Amino acid sequence: MDVKDIIKPENKVYGKCPVLTERVLHYCPGCSHGTIHKLLAEVIQEMGIQDKTIAISPVGCAVFAYNYIDIDWQQAPHGRAAALATGAKRICPDKYVFTYQGDGDLSAIGTAETIHACNRGENIVIILVNNAIYGMTGGQMSPLTLEGQVTSTTPYGRDIALNGYPLKITNLIAQLDGTCYVTRQSVQNAAAVRKTKKAIRKAFENSAQKKGTSFIEVVSSCNSGWKLSPVDANKWMEDNMFPFYELGDLKDK
Amino acid sequence: MAEKLLMKGNEAVAIAAIRCGCDGYFGYPITPQSEVMETLMEEKPWETTGMVVLQAESEVASINMLYGGASCGKKVMTSSSSPGISLMCEGFSYMAGAELPCLVVNVVRGGPGLGSIQASQADYFQATKGGGHGDYQLIVLAPNSVQEMYDFVDLGFELAFKYRNPALILTDGVIGQMMEKVELRPEKKRWTDEEVIKLHGDWATTGKTKDRPQHAITSLALESAVLERFNLRLIEKYKKLNEQEVRFEKTNCDDADYIIIAYGAASRVCEKAVELARSEGIKVGLLRPITLYPFPTKEIQNMAKQLKAILTVEMSAGQMVQDVRLAINGALPVEFFGRLGGIIPTPEEVVAALKKMVK
Amino acid sequence: MAMKGAIVVDRERCKGCGVCIVNCPAKVIGLTKEVNSKGYPMSYMANPEECTGCTNCATVCPDSVITVYRVKV
Question: Is the ipTM of this complex over 0.90?
Fold first, then answer.
C-alpha cells in the first residue's frame, strides 16, 4: 500500500491538538515542557473546558506557556503561582484552575505558597515539572538537584554538606490533608506520556468534584542544562532521577 | 436620613468593602490593622454578598491572591501595615506591570524594621515613589477621617478599575484605630459574571471562548522596544491621573500668607494648629493632599503666588516635604516639622514651628 | 488484522531532537541530512513500509509536529 493512500484525512489517528496555538515552542529540542503542554491541551480539549480554564504560568522556561496553550493565562511572580491560583479559584469557583511550575519556582522560592495552598485543599491542580535544575537562568542548582549532580552553581557536584539534601517536595506535599491526589509521572516514552495524561485528567476531574488539591510532579529532562543530547538526557533521567524520585501515585483518595 | 454608625477606621474599611461590592479580601494579621480582617470574618459576607474572605499565609501570598483575583476582572483587596506592605511591594510592581486593578490599605506604623505599632507616616516614599522595582506608580489616597476610610474603599476601586492600576489607601494607626461616626453609603451589588465580561471582558481571564483570542495577564516583555512602548503607555496613564484625579482640600487658604501642608492624621492636628495660629493673628491656611499620587503639585504652585512660606507637617523624618519642595522649586521657603517613632505632634508644637518660620 | 501506518512531519517545526526515533518500535524514523530554516535536521520515514501507525512517535513528540495516519490492511 502506498504511503499516499494512507495519508488521507479519514485515516488520521493522531495530530496536533487544536487547543495548542500555532506558535513554535521556544523550548530546546527534546524538552519535556512541550510534551506536558500537549497533554494539558489534550485533556482540556477532551473535557471541553477551554472556556472554563484559567492557568497560571511560572517564572522559568515555562514563563511563556501562554504562548502555546490557547486558554486564558496569568503569569505569576516567581514562586507565587499557587497564591494566584488560590485567588482566581476562590473568586471564580466554577473555573478549572491549574498552575504550571518548575522545580526552582515551586520548591525554592514558592515553597510557602505551594504548601499552604495544598494544605488549605484549594480545588486546583498543580503541575510540577521537575528537571532538577533552574533551566531558564542557565542551569543552576535547585532544591531538587540530585546529590553529586553538576550544575552551574555546583560545578563540582551538589555537596550535601554545603547545599543540603535534594528535596522530595512531592512526598512532603502528599502528607498534607488538603491534597487528594499526589502522583509522580514522566514523559520520556509513549507509555509514560499516556499515564501522565491520565493523571492530568484525573486531577482536573478532582477539582470539579471539589476533592482538594491535586499535585502532579512530572520528572523531566533538561538536556541543555544537563549538557546532554535529548535522547541521552532521557536515559540519564531514567538512570539517575527515577531511583531517587520514584514514579507512581503517592496518594489517591 | 442615611444610617450613621460609630466605628473604628479599620472597621469602616471592612464594612465599606462588603457594601461596595468587593469580591474578595485576602489578608494577614498585623497590628494596627487586624480589625479589618477580624471584622470581615465576623460579618461573614460570603453568606450575604458572596464576598470571599481568606486569611493567607503571608503578605506575599495575600498580594498574589489579589493578582489571581484581579486578573479575573474582580474587585479584590487586602490590608496590612508597614512591614507587611514591604513584603507586598513585589506584587505591586507585578500588578502595575500587568495593569491589574486592586485595592490595598496600609495602616502605617513606625519604622524602619519592626519599628513600633504606633501611628506613623513614614511610608510616604514607599507608597508614592515605588517600593517595588521598575517605573510604576500606585494611585495613593490619604484619608483623614473614619468617614474617608469608608468612602475611599469605593473610590479606590473606582480609580483602580478606571486606570487598571493598583490603588493604595495610605492611612495610619490613628485613623485606623480611632472611632468616629460614619454615614453608610447605598449598597452596591457585586458584579455578576456577565457584568465582569461586559466591563472587563477585553482583558480579564474570564475563560477563553471561541469568539475571542486568549487573554494572558503578564508583565513580561523581553523585547526592549516592546517594553519601552509599554513604559511609555504607563507614563501616559500616570499623566492622565495627574491631569484628572488630583484631589485635595483647602481650609482657610483664601487670605493666607502661609500654609501648612499635611495629610492624614497630621492634617487633623494641623486643623487645630491653624485655628490656634489664626487666633494669634497669623494668616495661615491648611492644604491637605487627598491624593498623594497624583500629588497636588499644580495647586501648590498656584497657591505659592500669594504665599510667603510653607510649613509641611508629617509624622516622619520629612518625606512629602520633598514633593512640596519640588513643586515650589526654590520660589519660597519650605520648612518642615515632624515627630517620629509613632509620636503624634501636638497643635501647640505645630504652632511653635509655624511661628519660627513666620519670624 | 495488520495495521499500516504513515506519518507526516511538520518539517519547519521539527527540531530534530530524535525522541521519536528511539520511541518507534518499528524503527521507521530517521533524521534527514538536510536542515530546515532553523538549522535543525528533521524526522522522516526512513523505512515507511514498517510503520504501523502506533502513534508512539507523535505521543512523545514535544513539539507536536507529527501527524499519524493508519489503515487496516
Answer: yes
